[in-house]
Amino acid sequence: MQDIFLGLREDFKTVFWPKQYFAWQTLLLLSLFSLVVAALLESINGETTRPVDLLTSLSWIFFTLAVWWALAETKPIKVWDFSLSPWITGIVLCLFLFRPWTDTRFRLAFSCWPLISTGIKALPHFVNWELKWTLPKPAIQKMLISVTLVNLLLTSWIVFYFRVQDWVSNYPTLLARSLDNSAFVYDIGQDRERRSSQGVPLLENMAEAIALEIEGQPWYQAERWLYTRQERLESIAQKAFDNLDASEEQLFWRVNIQEPREFGEGYLLDMKATWAGPIQAQTGLYTTKTCKIVPTSEPRDVPTRENEPPPTTQITSVDCGERATDQWEIPAI
Amino acid sequence: MEYEPILPLRAIVFQILFLIVAVAIEAGILRQRLRLGFQTSVQYAAVTNLAAVVVGWIAFLVIEPLATANIKQQIINYILFNQLLPDGWSTQLGAVLLATGLVAFFATFFIKAKGLEYFLRSDDGWKQLAVKKPRKLTRDERYSRARGGFMEARQSTGPDFTDTVIQANAASSTAILLLILLRTVLEAWAV
Fold first, then answer.
1. What ipTM was assigned to the predicted interfaces of this complex?
2. Does A227 contact chain B (CB < 8 Å)?
3. Does A102 touch chain B (CB under 8 A)?
4. Are the CB atoms for A307 and A279 separated by under 8 Å?
5. What residues form DSSP beta bridges with A266?
6. Which of the four pLDDT bands, split at 50, 70 and 90, describes residue B132?
7. What's the CA angle centered on A213, arms A210 and A218, to 5 degrees?
8. Of the residues A247, A299, A329, B125, which has the maximum number of CB atoms within 10 A of its CB?
9. Degrees (nearest 5) of the Cα angle B24, B168, B106?
10. What gap in Å lies between CA A119 and CA A7, rounded to an integer?
11. Which residues lie across from A296 on neighbouring strands?
């Protein structure tokens, strides 16, 4: 057991301990050293100061250079004689340059990664060991042009990926049906449970707002409200749109409210939200909800004589039933 | 932000397939008409097509956020649900589609011509091509031209560079269009 550990230690030493000063291991140690000093400084001061920033940056730079040098010396990963080392160094450099811990920075870092890697690959062909600027030979120039173009294509694919992500997050109802027909994207998680469209929360919001406005009001108020409903409903719909998780979907929803139907003494108010946005062929998506608006009698709070029923007043009650569901013109799969 | 596991894998596969088809066709035409070597013509065709594809992507990625809501809806419909013009043709959309196609054709032609010219110049193939063009007429030919003034004599002065590129571009575009059409037909047939 001890032998194994000893052997490991020996291996570790041969790989990571420099045999001469001018080696990539030196840079790695420098990077570690700056990091340790930075950590010490920060623990002493208790806050991030400029020297700490400087030291961490230096540590990153040493680390990037060490990775670059190590990969250039060993060339471990190759695809058909084509070394992938610049792309690995590119990852490290992107981590250093962009610090991609937030979403926008992550996008920027990921999109720029192929181009930065191309730059790392091209740099030694433009600058020689005496740090003099030279133009590479025509054959190398051509190779570099091809590599740049391929990496621009990679960048385009990455940006396109983020664009599609933007679409489905701005318009989540797009994912209510499968993307199987697409010639561009493949949905790896297509077996996941389909979320309901945003038409459901839209109508729920509206029903809630309607109830809030007329529930408990005297019946004549509700009748007046129903008579002049157009204006109120428009503002209610607008507010419901604004309260959606992805309010940009407003563009693609058509809300239609029918003339109230008579129902006993009260009325039925039918609401329908239809998806007018992009959706699978020959499919229609809509959600409906019906609110029952009826008068109920409640005893009035006035003093009455004995043996006489108390006078009542007509109060509005609103009942919008259960939660709405998505409905399809052809059944959902 | 949460990311959905939706990857543009199909776009990548089709892109590579179409690139291979275009390079094969264009390399064949370049080899035949410009008398370039096998490897050279494949190389030129590959690089010029890559350049055209990259410019196309950049144009799409720049234009898409600037497009009107209607056009954007059509783009999403096509990309996510493979529906071109689901509400049928309208004059505006038809015009946009036609203009896009025309611009795409001539822009790719321009890129390919300029790219090819650059590569030929850097490989000294341009001069040979230029020398080849005003081929010296033989005595008999000059004689017959002077007598009859036939136009055929001028047309037979070897393949023109621009002509070749436009022919190659047209051939590869047609092939790709046919492949897309084939996919649509197969899909309709499968359903």
1. 0.83
2. no
3. no
4. no
5. A263
6. low
7. 120
8. B125
9. 125
10. 40
11. A315
Alpha helices (H) along chain A: 2-16, 24-45, 50-74, 85-98, 103-126, 138-170, 199-214, 219-227, 229-242
Question: Would you call A188 an interface residue with chain B, using a CB distance cutoff of 8 Å?
Answer: yes
- Chain CA centroid to CA A169, Å: 6
Q: Which two tokens stand for residue B16?
A: 């590579």
Q: Does A303 touch chain B (CB under 8 A)?
A: no
Mean pLDDT calculated for residue range B47-62: 94
Rounded to 5°, angle at Cα A115 from A113 and A117: 70
Query: Does A149 sit within 8 Å of B82, measured CB to CB?
Result: no
| Interatomic CA distance for residues A154 and A116, integer angstroms | 12
Please tell me which residue of chain B has the smallest CA distance to A178.
Answer: B81
State the greatest distance between any 2 C-alpha atoms of chain A, in Å, as a whole number: 114
- Phi and psi angles of residue A117, each rounded to the nearest 5 degrees, phi first: -65, -40
Substitution target in A115, A160, A249, A333 with the highest count of B β-carbons within 10 Å is A160
Q: Which two tokens stand for residue B182?
A: 């084939």
Q: Is residue A166 over pLDDT 70?
A: yes
Report the pLDDT averaged over residues A167-191. 83
Subunit contact B82:A167, Cβ cutoff 8 A? no
B51 Cα to chain A: minimum distance (Å): 6
Place A148 in a pLDDT band, splitting at 50, 70 and 90: very high
- Dihedral sign for Cα B168, B170, B171, B176, please: positive
B146 interfaces chain A, CB cutoff of 8 Å: no
Per-position DSSP letters for A245-258, written without gaps between them: TTGGGGGGEEEEEP
For A58-81, what is each residue's pLDDT tens digit?
888 888 888 888 877 776 677 776
> Between the CA of residue B106 and those of A95, B56, B99, what are the distances in Å?
40, 12, 11
The answer to whether the CB atoms of A281 and B86 lie below 8 A apart is yes
Tell me the nearest-neighbour CA distance from A157 into chain B, angstroms.
7
Q: Where are the alpha helices (DSSP H) in A102-189?
A: 103-126, 138-170
